[in-house]
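Hello again, I could really use a second opinion on something today. I've been staring at a protein lately and its backbone has me curious. Can you walk me through what the tokens say about the fold? Take your time with it, there's no hurry, and the full record follows here:
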Amino acid sequence: MNFFINDALAEATPAAAGPGGLTGLIFPIGLILILYFFMIRPQVKRQKAHRALVESLKKGDEVQTSGGLMGRITDVGENFVKVEIADGIEVTVRRLAVEAVMPKGTLKEL
């Protein structure tokens, strides 16, 4: 009564069915491990380092923002900092926009 399926094609031997069990999962698990160690883990480390940098900002630090401005912090708020980029010129930027704290005296060299 099986008119739609040939009996010879419906029965597959275990060897022809492909790799079974754990051997079929080794490649995807390996790819996930490689993805974790080369992409996810370094990004999480960078995020932690940036968070620590932003939390440690204080008045007088010479900083560079993500927009490329360099200046000295004159006021630190909860979410914003005021950066003096030239004599008498202050801009307000978000704390998260601070990309790096420069060594003291960097602004005098520029």
About this structure: The chain has a mean pLDDT of 86.
